[in-house]
Amino acid sequence: MRGLWVKLSLAFAGVVILSLLLTSLLIGLATAGEFGVYVAQGNRRWAEALAPALANYYLRNGGWEGVESLLDPSSLMMPGMGPMHHPMGMSGVAMWRMMGHRLILADETGWVRLDSEGTWVGTLLPEAVRNAGAPIWAGDRIVGWLLIGDAGSLSDPSAQFLGRVGWAIGWSAFVGMVLALGAGTLVFSRLVRPLRALQQASRRIAAGDLNARIPAQEAGELGEVAQAFNRMAEALARAEQQRRQMLADIAHELRTPLGILQGHLEALLDGVLPLELEQIAQIHDEVRHLARLVEDLRLLTLAEAGQLRLDREMVDLKRLIEEAVDGIALQAAEKGLRLEVQLPGELPPILADPTRLRQVLMNLLTNAVRYTPSGGQIVVRAQDMGDAVHVSVRDTGIGIAPEDLPHIFDRFYRAGKSRARSDGGSGLGLAIARHLIEAHGGRIGVESAPGEGTCFFFTLPRQEPDRGVSPIRRSVRDAG
């Protein structure tokens, strides 16, 4: 995670520095350009204001001879300024240099006759440079050109101004870099901290510690990531706990019948028990129990994996319920229980797998018979809810404790000692029933209280068969 922090910091620093440098450069160029235009316009206005004085000199003297005397600032004043005197005998050239300006006078042909710097005297000014100055008119003709510009020295006011502007831009860029990098460091440290916690928790989970969690204190996307990671870790922990519990339950369920089989076979081999049909029948019963347990586990595994195959067809639910009740009637009669069926005149047909629905009904009816004492009653009801069909199996049995109700549909779960393995159940019937009903798009539930009986119920949605497909039989895969 340190590498990520370094990469983010370097990338952010590069972007900030490049952006500020580019911004400073553009601001500096724009400022220099605009200020240059402003100064040039001001110098031209100054030259235009001084041009009449030079024109008068030309008319008085009939030419430009001795024009150097006009360098005296007291003779050529800036507009709006009074006469300027020579401090301590300073010459006119020195005065112009002190002011940071340069005065150039060219005659009508472009030859330089006066230069406050003295370097261009006797040279020919290019026409473009000459035309940038102010023309000097003597009557109706141009007798010369006057140009006033910056001297280009450190004392030049324009250079000093641009220098101060550049200094301010540079310091602003530097302060901006420092502030941006400081803020970026704080942001990246807050960003990397939860990511570092996520990295450490991920390593712990990869090492097998499923109790690793991330403090979900951040807001926004990082907080959502932390919460999602914690939910994932909790799901993994639950799955691992369920896996271990399932293995323990399977081992427990297999140990008893295998132990009985081993005991009977060893007794037969040792001659302790005679080899008679009765002993073989007991062994056969345990083998059937094992086969039923393995088949239930296979069915439950397919249902939980979403690979349970449903052979759907349009089912007459009323007839299916009556057949299931007839199948359990003998066991109920042997135990002295009253079976009552309360069905409407007609129930709408539903698209379902009749074998799986019969299995659900037999599981619920078998449980009702098993846990209802002699003399009790079992009532099976069904009613049309419009968009669904509601079926319930109510008994007057021992009931289920409130703390057991949330787990009653878990595999291998038995509520209390009263629901022990000796009663004949494997603890998988209700789990299978739940997955079968959910595979049909329905819902299953239970209502119970100790000593007041139990009511298992489920609802199945009404579904119309697809057009163009025979409603008699169809085979589909349902993800449950």
TrEMBL record:
Broad EC category: transferase
- Lineage summary: Bacteria, Bacillati, Chloroflexota, Thermoflexia, Thermoflexales
| Compartments where found | Membrane
Its primary localisation, in coarse terms, equals membrane
Provide the species name. Answer: Candidatus Thermoflexus japonica
This entry's Enzyme Commission designation comes to: 2.7.13.3
Protein name per the record? histidine kinase
Segments passing through the bilayer: 165-188
Give the residues annotated as coiled coil.
none
* Gene Ontology CC: one annotated term: membrane
Write down the PROSITE patterns for this protein, in alphabetical order: HAMP (PS50885), HIS_KIN (PS50109)
Which Gene Ontology molecular-function terms are recorded?
A: phosphorelay sensor kinase activity
UniProt catalytic activity: ATP + protein L-histidine = ADP + protein N-phospho-L-histidine
Record flagged with keyword Metal-binding: no
Q: Which residues form the HAMP domain?
A: 189-241
Task: State the Pfam families in the record.
Answer: HAMP, HATPase_c, HisKA
- Lineage top rank: taxon: Bacteria
Domain Histidine kinase per the UniProt entry, residue ranges: 249-464
* Keywords, sorted A to Z: Kinase, Membrane, Phosphoprotein, Transferase, Transmembrane, Transmembrane helix, Two-component regulatory system
